[in-house]
Design goal:
The protein has helices at about 10-25, 35-40, 45-50, 55-65, 80-90, 95-110, 115-125, 130-140, 150-155, 155-170, 175-190, 195-200. It is mostly helical and about 220 residues long. Helix 1 packs across helix 2 (about 35-40). It is elongated.
Length: about 220
């Protein structure tokens, strides 16, 4: 095949777009240097010079599609609304990511790829630690939280729980689940107070609220 003469960003974009099309059409099995070179109308050696192995090329393809990009940090005026906004925005991007993650994980468990599930998850669904840290800092400035240090694992909890729901269901998370993550798990954990929405839930609600246990010091 005669390759189209392109250079720099135009060539890289053509290669990465061809790689994405291969993933969508045939999964990771079809994600080969030969097929991508053919569809990008370039040579395999051109691809190898930029990405020496399939895993590096895969991560570049995922990044070009906008997966894993940090969300804008919402500023809605309250901790609860900021958290809900952040999780809802992440959830909007989750459907394609979940399907692709399922395909790539199949390759991982069959030994075709060595990237860890954690790295794949972060590449596809992103790491919102910076956004969560900023949201909590603003809440402290507004007086909604005390200035006590919050352990990093707790800071990450809302997005960790959201990602777990996405991975387990391979679909978007229902909005009521997002509200549940915020109102019945995270806010009571960091404030020690249940939200008014949780207090007002009627008996027989499908949401189960466990009392916050305080360990004596």
């Amino acid at each position: 095949m005669t390759s189209t003469r392109r250079r720099g960003r135009a060539l890289e974009a053509a290669i990465l777009d061809a790689g994405w099309n291969q993933l969508i059409k045939g999964g990771y099995t079809s994600f080969t240097f030969e097929a991508i070179a053919e569809h990008a109308e370039t040579g395999k050696s051109v691809i190898y010079r930029r990405w020496p192995d399939k895993e590096k090329l895969l991560l570049a393809v995922i990044k070009r599609q906008g997966f894993g990009a940090p969300s804008d940090i919402p500023d809605m005026g309250s901790l609860r609304e900021d958290l809900l906004s952040l999780l809802r925005t992440a959830n909007q991007r989750s459907e394609r990511a979940a399907i692709l993650l399922s395909t790539i994980l199949s390759a991982y468990f069959s030994g075709e790829i060595s990237l860890t599930p954690e790295r794949l998850r972060t590449a596809l669904l992103g790491d919102q630690s910076r956004a969560l840290t900023e949201i909590l800092r603003r809440a402290i400035d507004r007086g909604e939280l005390s200035a006590d240090d919050i352990p990093p694992r707790i800071v990450r909890l809302p997005t960790d729980l959201l990602r777990q729901e996405i991975i387990m269901n391979l679909n978007r998370v229902p909005d009521e689940t997002i509200v549940d993550i915020v109102d019945t798990i995270f806010l009571p954990l960091v404030t020690g107070v249940r939200s008014q929405d949780t207090k007002n839930r009627k008996p027989g609600s499908t949401h189960t609220v466990c009392p916050l246990v305080h360990t004596p010091k």
